[in-house]
Amino acid sequence: MTETVPTPNSGLIALKVDKISQLFDTLDPFPFHERDLDRDAEDFIVGWARELPANKAIEIAVHIPASEGESAHAKEVGPAFATYFRYRADATGRDLKEMFRIGRFSLLMGLVVLAVCLTAGRAISTAFPRSEIARFFDEGLVILGWVANWRPIEIFLYEWWPLVRRRNLFRRLAAARVKLVAR
After folding, report:
1. Is the four-CA dihedral 158, 162, 165, 167 of positive or negative sign?
2. Is residue 76 domain-shared with residue 17, that is, in the same domain?
3. Which domain holds residue 128?
4. Rounded CA gap, 89 and 145, in Å?
5. Which of 17, 55, 143, 167 suits a disulfide with 92, CB 3.0-4.6 Å?
6. Is residue 153 domain-shared with residue 100, that is, in the same domain?
7. Quick one: how many helices (H) and strands (E) in the chain?
8. Is residue 4 part of a domain?
9. CB 153 within 8 A of CB 82
């Protein structure tokens, strides 16, 4: 057991629990070192980790009663945190890959719709050169073609950034130094 003074190039997240088991989902059937974190504990840790500078390592200090420090689970807390956050980083990475897969498919479909709309619009304009209704349909089809590309543009320009940040945060948390502090 150690004190809660962070090392110079790290950010400290401090938790206080009465039992180590409070940190983990009690309904999870896996062995202790593979259990999911309790939702409230995860939210607390992730919330604090977001506030820490990205260039600093993360340390997690878990304040527990001295009697809990002697339990069999005490030695498994650090590896359990690492396993859980590594899993969350991998899952977020899979979500990112899925988003890009959807983006590629959406882009393909959007470009096909754009090509069809542009071709149809030009055909209508050519068939009825001085018609205001033909001009109306031509312009409407051009707009429809570009709107069909809205989703892939949104994915490739904006939506992937939060997933990358979340994945990187989970990776930092998986590498965090976890220490138990007796109180």
Report:
1. negative
2. yes
3. 95-166
4. 37
5. 167
6. yes
7. 5, 3
8. no
9. no
Render 7-59 in DSSP notation, one character per residue. Answer: PTTEEEEEEE-SSGGGGB-TT--S-GGGPPBPHHHHHHHHHHHHHS-TTSEEE
Percent of the chain with pLDDT over 70: 91
Q: What is the mean pLDDT of residues 96-100?
A: 97
Buried b (16+ CB within 10 A) or exposed e, 116-132: ebeebbeebbeeeeeee
Give per-residue pLDDT as tens, 129-161.
999 999 999 999 999 999 999 999 999 999 999
**What pLDDT does 32 receive?**
62
State how many domains the chain has: 2
Residues 105-114 pLDDT 10s: 999 999 999 9
Whole-number Å distance between alpha carbons of 171 and 8: 20
Whether 29 and 85 map to the same domain: the answer is: yes
